[in-house]
């Protein structure tokens, strides 16, 4: 794996020249519009990057974007990878390792998720303060590469408290409804049953989704500070559960995206 990371990083550096990103961004389902805020210098299709997994979802662009956002040099993944697409956890998290090797100092992650907390509503935002990992595999299983990180990385603060505090203040200052909560990662791709939503809430979840946690584990393994934010695109309340379509999820994400973009831009500006 280390050799693949080095080869991919070398290829990208050759393509982007002396551009050195400070911040890495992973854009989730329906949230690729942040790219329009970036002063783009280079774009690389995942399919053209050696060993880089290709997003199989039609609503994920599959581009690596290099440019300037809020005065900071960034690299943004316009389209992420999921375990349910058939990739290994190592493949899903490979881009995070490459971004770290490219020089990023902070990782910002976004996703679309379902609300579990009855005080939350679809269209709200939630800054992730902690997570519960219910996905079946861990990206750190197998031989540990000491050059990448320790065998047993600490996860006492997977999402950096100072970044959470700043983001919540930005939201409050701009009259944006933004909660703080625990994200539960499941496999997907199906949504949950009533009993599953009830269980996820009982164990402490405020929102549920199918991504993010593998990337966050790997970022922590490499000593990379993480900020993550969810757009709550549907409501998993067992007592009042309704069928949800992908079209509805994308529509809610699209409507909430400007609020998330504002928070991310201002947060990145202050890094």
Rg (C-alpha, Å): 17 Å
Proportion of beta-strand residues: 15-25%
> Could you name the CATH class?
Alpha Beta
Task: Please state how the strands of the largest beta sheet are arranged side by side.
Answer: 5-8-7-6-9
Per the CATH scheme, the topology name is: Rossmann fold
Average the pLDDT over all residues and give the rounded result.
Answer: 95
What percent of the residues sit in helical stretches (DSSP H or I)? 25-40%
How many DSSP helices?
Answer: 6
**Architecture, CATH level 2?**
3-Layer(aba) Sandwich
N- to C-terminal separation?
30 Å
Question: CATH H level: which superfamily?
Answer: Nucleoside phosphorylase domain
The profile of the biggest β sheet is:
5 strands, mixed, barrel
EC number: 2.4.2.1
Function: The purine nucleoside phosphorylases catalyze the phosphorolytic breakdown of the N-glycosidic bond in the beta-(deoxy)ribonucleoside molecules, with the formation of the corresponding free purine bases and pentose-1-phosphate.
Domain Nucleoside phosphorylase: 23-269
GO molecular function, one term: purine-nucleoside phosphorylase activity
């Amino acid at each position: 794996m280390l050799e693949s990371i080095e080869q991919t990083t070398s290829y990208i550096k050759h393509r982007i020249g002396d551009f050195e990103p400070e911040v890495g961004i992973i854009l989730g389902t329906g949230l690729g519009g942040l790219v329009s805020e970036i002063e783009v210098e280079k774009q690389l299709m995942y399919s053209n990057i050696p060993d880089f997994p290709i997003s199989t979802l039609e609503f994920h662009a599959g581009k690596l974007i290099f440019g300037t956002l809020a005065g900071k040099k960034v690299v943004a993944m316009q389209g992420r990878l999921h375990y349910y697409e058939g990739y290994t956890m190592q493949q899903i998290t490979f881009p995070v390792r490459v971004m770290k090797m490219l020089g990023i100092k902070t990782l910002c992650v976004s996703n679309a998720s379902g609300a579990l907390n009855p005080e939350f509503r679809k269209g709200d935002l939630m800054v992730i303060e902690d997570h519960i990992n219910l996905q079946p595999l861990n990206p750190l299983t197998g031989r540990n590469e000491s050059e990448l990180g320790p065998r047993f990385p600490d996860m006492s603060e997977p999402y950096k408290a100072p970044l959470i505090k700043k983001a919540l203040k930005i939201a409050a200052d701009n009259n944006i409804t933004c909660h703080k909560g625990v994200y539960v990662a499941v496999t997907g791709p199906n949504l949950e049953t009533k009993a599953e939503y009830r269980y996820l809430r009982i164990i402490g979840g405020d929102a549920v989704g199918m991504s993010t946690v593998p990337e966050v584990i790997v970022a922590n393994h490499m000593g990379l500070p993480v900020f993550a934010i969810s757009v709550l695109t549907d409501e998993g309340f067992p007592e009042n559960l309704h069928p949800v379509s992908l079209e509805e999820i994308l529509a809610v994400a699209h409507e909430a995206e400007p609020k998330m973009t504002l928070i991310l831009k201002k947060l990145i500006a202050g890094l």
